[in-house]
Design brief:
Elements lengths: L5 H13 L12 H7 L5 E2 L3 E3 L5 E3 L4 E2 L3 E4 L4 E3 L4 E2 L4 E3 L1 E2 L4 H4 L7 E2 L2 E3 L4 E2 L4 E2 L4 E2 L4 E2 L4 E2 L9 E5 L2 E6 L31
Parallel strand pairs: 1-4, 2-5, 3-6, 4-7, 5-8, 6-11, 7-12, 8-13, 11-14, 12-15, 13-16, 15-17
Antiparallel strand pairs: 9-10, 17-18
Length: 199
């Protein structure tokens, strides 16, 4: 049996958080071959904290660096090939503003889903609040807080607290920007997300 690759050693972390009970393939002879067996699986670096875990959806090839926090009162989905820097926070849960309704821990817990598109990059210490959608191919600057009514359109850079759109990203991946035909083989395939929840 060869040495474990980082993806092999992180797989139990992802499985325990997302309640995914699929078994791992047998170990390969080398760490490189072992890594290839799980190349499309998400890579999550410990430590990671989740409120429930079963409301987290990670796409193929997602990378979540250490100290991620998921308050997954509602679904938190991260699209394929998205990179999340260290200390990223995904807070889909919220509470009423009225203290008479909130009642400390006796009141209701509310929430709205979070959706992060494919091929995004979230810098370190990014916080995503309830109800946010980050479009495909976006980059969110380190330390940013993406808050209500500030959805980020596809292929844009956003940063700040609260995060605001800074500029559009020029890319051949965006069909609305294409002035010449780009061969399909040069574009990353869409729809390669995997659900990692009790399948």
């Amino acid at each position: 049996m060869g040495l474990c690759s980082p993806r092999t050693s992180s797989y139990p972390i992802v499985a325990s958080i997302t309640n995914d009970h699929r078994s791992l393939p047998d170990h390969a002879l080398t760490a490189e071959e072992d890594g290839q067996l799980l190349a499309d699986e998400p890579l999550v670096i410990a430590p990671v904290r989740a409120d429930y875990g079963f409301n987290i959806r990670l796409g193929a090839g997602v990378f979540v660096n250490f100290n991620a926090t998921f308050i997954d009162t509602c679904q938190v989905s991260i699209g394929a090939r998205t990179l999340c820097g260290p200390n990223c926070n995904f807070y889909s849960g919220t509470h009423p503003l009225d203290p008479a309704v909130r009642m400390g821990m006796s009141g209701p817990e509310l929430g709205k889903p979070i959706a992060i598109g494919q091929d995004c990059w979230l810098g370190g210490n990014v916080t995503i609040l309830p109800g946010i959608t980050v479009g495909r191919g976006c980059s969110i600057g380190a330390g940013s807080v993406v808050t209500k009514c500030k959805n980020i359109p596809n292929f844009h850079v956003a940063a700040g607290n609260p995060a605001r759109v800074i500029r559009r990203i020029e890319t051949a991946m965006d069909p609305s920007q294409s002035t010449t035909a780009v061969p399909a083989s040069e574009l990353v395939k869409e729809g390669t997300e995997k659900l990692l929840v009790g399948q």
